[in-house]
Amino acid sequence: MTRILGVDPGLTRCGVGVIDLAAGRRVTLVSVDVFRSAPSDELSARVGSIGARIETLIQELKPDAIALERVFADVNVRSVMGTAQISGVVLMLAHRYGLPVALHTPTEVKAAVTGSGKADKAQVGNMVARILGLAEVPKPADAADSLAIAICHAWRGAGASVGTGQSLTAAQAAWQQAERAAARKREG
């Protein structure tokens, strides 16, 4: 049995989902939550609060690995910064607790869970509920997304594990290309 913590990073809402992976790719729900911080609070307090809650979750549920949604820099810089800040905290906690961490693109997650990298949030949520045998789709969407990230990692393996030098999947390579193109566009 392998326990995976999936994180949909965000500064206002951070989805955290924990699943167990058993033989035959069978996954079961352990825990799901959304950690929130108020936009009116000091930035360090917001990051610290979410980080502390994730650390408590790691200590209590003892995951074997962390799956994290890869940050993509688009036009909404404020949103990307909050996502990147929480991603940094998760990476630091993975290091602190000696946990392997893998980054998965949104397209890769959607494809793993629904079969289509272009699936919408409702399709992802419905498939997460179906895969985990839940009566309802976890709400808000950040909760379902965190579970989708964990399921993606369970079914696709380490993918783009940080620091392992493993090759990228086709979806990860396409995402990396898009990130580079966006960076060139901003610079030029």
CATH class: Alpha Beta
Strand order of the largest sheet: 3-2-1-4-5-6
Category by helix and strand content: alpha/beta
Number of helices: 6
Work out the strand percent.
15-25%
Overall tally of structural domains: 1
CATH topology: Nucleotidyltransferase, domain 5
H/E series? EEEHEHEHHHEH
Return residue spans where pLDDT drops below 50 for at least 5 consecutive residues: 158-167
Number of strands: 6
Q: Radius of gyration, Cα only, in angstroms?
A: 16 Å
Instruction: Describe the global form.
Output: globular
- Estimated helix fraction: 40-55%
What's the end-to-end separation, in Å? Answer: 48 Å
CATH superfamily, called what? Ribonuclease H-like superfamily/Ribonuclease H
Mean pLDDT: 87
Please summarize the sheet with the most strands.
6 strands, mixed
List the helices and strands and how they pair.
Layout: E1 2-8, E2 13-22, E3 26-36, H1 43-61, E4 65-69, H2 77-96, E5 101-104, H3 106-114, H4 121-132, H5 141-156, E6 160-161, H6 170-187
Parallel strand pairs: 1-4, 4-5
Antiparallel strand pairs: 1-2, 2-3, 5-6
Helix pairs in contact: 1-2, 3-5, 4-5
